Amino acid sequence: MSAFDAAMDAGMRRMMQGMHAAATSGNADVDFLAMMIPHHEGAVEMARLVLIHGRDPATRRLAEDIIASQSTEIAAMTGRLAILRGQAKPAEDEFPALGGTRGEAR
Fold first, then answer.
1. Is residue 67 part of a domain?
2. Is residue 35 part of a domain?
3. CA dihedral in degrees (91, 94, 100, 101; nearest 10)?
4. Nearest CA to 47 among 72, 29, 70, 28?
5. For 72, which DSSP code?
6. Burial class of 33 by CB neighbour count within 10 A (0 to 12, 13 to 18, 19+)
7. R_g over Cα of the chain
8. What's the total number of domains in the chain?
9. Which domain holds residue 53?
10. Overall pTM > 0.85
């Protein structure tokens, strides 16, 4: 198994563990966000590994885009999850600013 294969396998295991770590709350919004955050973190890790091991310029650009957009989405989901769990107070007119493929933040 190559170093890339081993690192990808380890990253996929961490992602799956993270997705299943949170007990379901019965709140679809909370459960969705709690599972999507580690899913996106897994995508960021996979893209990072391509930047280390990959050579194709187009694939590397895609990996860079994935890191940028998924990192923005992770931050938005983490903030929204904290609000839904009552750990943070929403700002007036609160909505997660996704940026990236969603357009500019308000």
1. yes
2. no
3. 180
4. 70
5. H
6. buried
7. 16
8. 1
9. 41-81
10. no
* pLDDT of amino acid 18: 92
Please report whether residue 9 resides in a domain. Answer: no
Q: What is the pLDDT of residue 22?
A: 79
User: What's the mean pLDDT in 47-66?
Assistant: 97
Q: Is residue 90 part of a domain?
A: no
Neighbouring C-alpha atoms within 13 Å toward the C-beta of 80: 20
95 and 102 Cβ atoms separated by less than 8 Å? no
* pLDDT value at residue 23: 78
The average confidence (pLDDT) of the chain is 88
pLDDT in tens, 8-52: 999 999 999 999 997 789 999 999 999 999 999 999 999 999 999
Residue 93: DSSP 8-state: T
> ∠ at Cα 20 (62, 34), nearest 5°?
65
